[in-house]
């Protein structure tokens, strides 16, 4: 167990409790190789993209273009971006319902993500799933699932399959790692404990990443979870190594996750990450947020992961203003295009009700077909 | 008497029973401080304290299992599950324990628990937030299943459920949480579990429904201009077949309407019992207007999925024309 990185600022409001508690063990690698500025700028772009996308989602929701529920990722962008940067493109990823960021970071085009929320046929799930159901087979994103915690056993299964294919079928060392994301509230679901025990028992190369934003809807981690200040102790109980990572800093996420992922890959073992972060917006679009104070929110929002990365680049003269401006413009255009495209995409026809249930047509069931964005793609 | 929404009527019933009986306690995710996702328990934690309105961790199996223990020990727990789809993680506790405890212990231990669950579609939410799983729990022996269609019935039925000696799943149709208001007496009244309501009388055909669909049925009946009798089951189990039988024996025709998927929906049971009990009175095969045998789709197809007044009217006309 080790604390790989300390949050950069000391905070009077600390939703996670006492972050320093487990710092006694040394960092596993301490490795902090400088990152190529072009790569950093790419991450900045990816984070700005998610931010812009989410801001526009909120507008579209208010305009009633998006229905039901919409869980906004603003504040947590560094996690999806840093984690996907730390794994290989064919390492499987699964997450819960706060999933737009993971989809975009993994490489889903904004239009397919947006169209899904609009309920249009061009969406990644043909507009039949909505905000919580982002899937991208091409980019090894296995969802997007609505039942809190239930995705973690799936993640362990995905990792089990990776291990099995390499070690049992091909008779070579394990080469892949699955990332399974959950929230801090999800820690209290039975499913994740069963999955962690199984992963620990069978040495499954799954990195379970708890995006610990301190709240489960209106319940703070300390009101809902034992050992809330030290959640890696739960993983340790299942024989899984635990790490605390500063999820508000993409460089920390990238460095620490790279080290953790490579260790899991090499040793074919699981890990658990307490990824400390804060969700800047409400739980979903209808959340008056009366369970936390504006002071606390301000403290975290002023420690914005995007601001931090900008500062890092600017301090090194690696982010000329013109470059940033151009980047922002491209992103705005791309999201605007995604909205226009989603508006133009047709609604799913009635025949879609009986489509994608079974492969074989029988009775009213009329077979199945891939979403538009996967057609003609190499889906190994 | 006040003009209340379904949310307010349920809130009032909870307050009145909690004031009367300090064995009644509420548990659930964000039911206290936040007042629940749909604000049904708004203000109750302030009023009764955090010991009686308990904010639980995010753990449905734990919430229901703990409630069962509380109930076996003599309390009257009222757990809330935020959406019907989240009954999944609690299914084991409900069906392996709550439903079987009286039988398993031959009456030595019982589970007087009322599980409150928002149910059904119509709010543009995706699957697991729009489903109608009443048939699953109706099929499980040992559970009572209740689903009111309006504020007045909700208050009376909920009080009966809270006082019932056996486990009750109290489904609250979320699309009508705030869509309709009714006069709801302040004074105590109960509506017995297991009694249907004849919403309007008629001679040509009987419509049987429950929950939010009852409102669509009323619109359809009004639009079709025939003498149609509408029965709101109110309690799905134990089912009031006497009321249905009397009506269908009179009209000879029946249309059953529910949101849930068609195959093995509660409509299948109603239709079979009509066949068993009213065979010689039937003038037409019993018809069903239901959801589809697919996972509830999101948003744009949702309104196609849910039986609306037009589809119900077509069902009525087909049955009348037979
Ligand atoms: C089994 C289940 N119970 C409840 C919910 C409703 N719900 C959705 S998100 C959520 C809070 C989850 O909090 P956390 O795991 O911390 O994730 P975050 O929202 O902070 O990303 C709840 C209670 C659900 N979707 N599934
Ligand atoms: Mg959280």
Could you explain how this protein is built, in words?
The complex is a heterodimer of chains A (380) and B (322). Chain A is of the alpha/beta class and 380 residues long. Chain A has a single domain, classed as Rossmann fold (3-Layer(aba) Sandwich). Helices cover 41% and strands 9% of the residues of chain A. Chain A has twelve helices and eight strands. In chain A, the strands form two sheets. Chain A has a six-stranded parallel beta sheet, sandwiched between helices. Chain A has a two-stranded antiparallel sheet with strand order 5-6. In chain A, a hairpin with a 2-residue loop joins strand 5 and strand 6. Chain B has a five-stranded mixed beta sheet with strand order 9-11-10-13-14, with helices on both faces. A four-stranded mixed beta sheet of chain B has the order 5-7-6-12. A three-stranded parallel beta sheet of chain B has the order 3-2-4. The mean pLDDT of chain B is 97. Chain B is built from twelve helices and 14 strands. Chain B folds into two domains: 2-184, Rossmann fold (3-Layer(aba) Sandwich), CATH 3.40.50.970; 197-321, Rossmann fold. Chain B has 322 residues and is an alpha/beta fold. Chains A and B meet through loops of A and loops of B. The complex binds thiamine diphosphate and magnesium ion (MG). Thiamine diphosphate sits between chains A (98, 146-148, 183-186, 211, 213, 215-217, 279, 283) and B (29, 58, 60, 82, 86, 89).
Question: What are the salient characteristics of this protein?
Answer:
heterodimer; A: 380 residues; alpha/beta; Rossmann fold; 6-stranded parallel beta sheet; two-stranded antiparallel sheet; 12 helices; 8 strands; globular; disordered N terminus; B: 322 residues; 2 domains; 5-stranded mixed beta sheet; 4-stranded mixed beta sheet; 36% helix; 19% strand; binds thiamine diphosphate; binds magnesium ion
């Amino acid at each position: 167990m080790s604390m790989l990185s300390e949050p950069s600022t000391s905070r009077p409001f600390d939703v996670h409790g006492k972050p320093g508690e487990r710092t006694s063990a040394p960092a596993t690698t301490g490795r902090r190789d400088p990152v190529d500025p072009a790569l950093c700028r790419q991450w900045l772009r990816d984070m700005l993209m998610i931010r812009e996308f989410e801001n526009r989602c909120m507008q579209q929701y208010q305009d009633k273009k998006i229905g039901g529920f919409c869980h906004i990722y603003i504040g947590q962008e560094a996690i999806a971006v840093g984690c996907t940067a730390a794994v290989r493109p064919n390492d499987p990823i699964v997450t819960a319902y706060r999933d737009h960021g993971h989809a975009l970071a993994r490489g889903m085009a904004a239009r397919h993500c947006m169209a899904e929320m609009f309920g249009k046929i061009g969406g990644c799930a043909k507009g039949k799933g909505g905000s919580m159901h982002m899937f991208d087979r091409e980019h090894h994103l296995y969802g997007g699932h609505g039942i809190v915690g239930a995705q973690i056993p799936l993640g362990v299964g995905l990792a089990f399959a990776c291990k099995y294919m390499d070690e049992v079928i091909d008779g070579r060392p394990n080469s892949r790692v699955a990332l399974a994301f959950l929230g801090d509230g999800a820690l209290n679901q039975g499913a994740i404990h069963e999955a962690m025990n199984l992963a620990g028992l069978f040495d499954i190369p799954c990195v379970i990443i708890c995006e610990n934003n301190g709240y489960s809807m209106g319940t703070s981690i300390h009101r809902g979870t034992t050992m809330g200040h030290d959640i890696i102790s739960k993983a340790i109980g299942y024989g899984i190594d635990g790490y605390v990572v500063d999820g508000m800093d993409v460089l920390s996420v990238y460095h620490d996750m790279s080290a953790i992922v490579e260790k899991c890959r090499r040793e074919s073992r699981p890990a658990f990450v307490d990824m400390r972060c804060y969700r800047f917006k409400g739980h979903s679009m209808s959340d008056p947020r009366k369970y936390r104070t504006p002071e606390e929110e301000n403290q975290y929002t002023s420690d914005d992961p995007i601001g931090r990365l900008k500062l890092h680049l600017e301090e090194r003269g690696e982010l000329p203003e013109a470059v940033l401006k151009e980047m922002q413009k491209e992103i705005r255009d791309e999201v605007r295009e995604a909205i226009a495209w989603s508006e133009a995409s047709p609604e799913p026809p009635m025949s879609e009700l009986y489509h994608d249930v079974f492969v074989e047509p029988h009775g009213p069931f009329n077979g199945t077909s891939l979403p538009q964005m996967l057609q003609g793609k190499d889906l190994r | 008497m006040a003009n209340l929404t379904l949310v307010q009527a349920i809130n009032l019933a909870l307050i009145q029973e909690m004031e009367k009986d300090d064995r009644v306690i509420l548990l659930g995710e964000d039911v206290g401080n936040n007042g629940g996702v749909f604000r049904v328990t708004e203000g109750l934690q302030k009023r009764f304290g955090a010991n009686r309105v308990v904010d639980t961790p995010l753990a449905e199996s734990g919430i229901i299992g703990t409630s069962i223990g509380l109930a076996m020990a003599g309390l009257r727990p009222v757990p809330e599950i935020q959406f019907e789809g989240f009954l999944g993680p609690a299914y084991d506790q409900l069906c392996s324990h709550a439903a079987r405890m009286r039988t398993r212990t031959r009456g030595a231990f019982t589970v007087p628990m009322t599980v409150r669950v928002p149910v059904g579609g119509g709010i543009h939410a995706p699957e697991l937030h729009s489903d109608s799983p009443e048939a699953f729990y109706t099929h499980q022996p040992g559970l009572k299943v209740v689903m009111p269609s309006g504020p007045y019935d909700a208050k009376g039925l909920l009080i009966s459920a809270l006082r019932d000696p056996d486990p009750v799943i109290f489904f609250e149709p979320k699309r009508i949480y705030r869509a309709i208001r009714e006069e709801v007496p302040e004074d105590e009244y109960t509506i017995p579990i297991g009694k249907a309501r004849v919403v309007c009388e008629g001679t040509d055909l009987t419509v049987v429904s429950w929950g939010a669909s009852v409102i669509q049925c009323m619109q359809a009946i009004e639009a079709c201009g025939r003498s149609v009798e509408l029965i709101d089951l109110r309690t799905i189990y134990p089912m009031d077949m006497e009321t249905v039988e009397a009506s269908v024996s009179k009209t000879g025709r029946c249309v059953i309407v529910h949101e849930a998927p068609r195959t093995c929906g509660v409509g299948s049971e109603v239709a079979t019992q009509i066949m068993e009990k009213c065979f010689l009175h039937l003038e037409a095969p019993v018809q069903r207007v239901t959801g589809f045998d697919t996972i509830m789709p999101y948003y744009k197809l949702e309104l196609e999925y849910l039986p609306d007044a037009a589809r119900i009217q077509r069902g009525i006309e087909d049955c009348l024309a037979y």
